[in-house]
Design goal:
This protein is an alpha+beta fold. It is about 40% helix and about 25% strand. It has helices at about 1-5, 10-35, 40-45, 55-65, 70-85, 120-125, 140-145, 175-180, 210-215, 225-245, 265-270, 275-280; strands at about 105-110, 130-135, 150-155, 155-160, 165-170, 185-195, 195-205, 250-255, 275, 290, 295, 300-305, 305-315, 325-330. Helix 2 (about 10-35) packs antiparallel against helix 4, helix 9 (about 210-215) packs antiparallel against helix 10 and helix 10 (about 225-245) runs parallel beside helix 11.
Amino acid sequence: MTGLLKMPVRRLTRLVAWAYLGAVVVLAAAFWSLGDRWWPVTLALYGPRWVFALPLIPIALAGMLVDRRGLPITALAALILAGPVLGLRISPRAWGVSGKPDGALRIVTANVEGGQQVDLARILALEPDVILFQECSAEFDDRLQQLRGWETDPERFVCAMSRLPIRARARQDPGEFWRIGGADNVIRYELESRWGPISVTNVHLNTPRSGLQDAVRIRFWEAAGAIADNIIERNSESLAARRWVDAGRGPTIVGGDFNLPDESAIFQGHWGDLTDAFGAAGNGFGTTKRTRLIGVRIDHVLVGPGWRVLAAFVGPAIGSDHRPLVVDLQWRGAR
């Protein structure tokens, strides 16, 4: 401690910048390797990530006022923080794209939180071809059935609307999910498109909330078991859901509330071989779930081989704690 006090201020400023860069690198590596594997990292993964950016401001100010040679170090830390930690995506593919591209299939997924407060007009203004809803209620299903020009599937918890004819639907046996502690919210549709039949699956997977809340409500060190059990349940649920997706006929599209950020080991292990639409053609942070303190991208549209993602963006507020994710797709054909 005495050595730090005697250290020249400029050198100390650079040392702090290097230390922050090291911490950010370790954090990014932990997110992408230990998220949903080790409970302390899982807490950080689903928590308010913006807190990790708080030291950036004073460190940058110190660099500008005391020693500008530390600014490149701080800038590198900011880049790593923005991308691998906070989830910033930059896709030149979507630059200059405005409006719905001609011939594109537009998929919208939205958790409507019961749907009582949801502004359907805002969702329809997005010009979707297929809409996948999660947390549907009987009241919301009634609203969907009153719309003209749509084929609807008024199912509780997960429901859907489609401009394309729905030729078949199949819901996974809820007992398979209940046995592993999950929900029964996976429905696969076969839609008739100009390219032939396509497989579109609507998913709403289990939340990590129960384990994370235990970390707050009970003694912190006793929460490890609850979070670990929750990770096992969600991993088994994703395994079962992916098997259901793979049983579909035709080109694959999966959308919904996965309750998994893309850094999650569960997400990477069971869904990582599919193309994440926002990761491929989105710009910005893509935050779909928002609360007072937390913003995270846990709603996804994933596609299998043969699809080209033209654009992906987060839509406006619709009266839910989630915002819709909008994705434009083009079929290129199996190769």
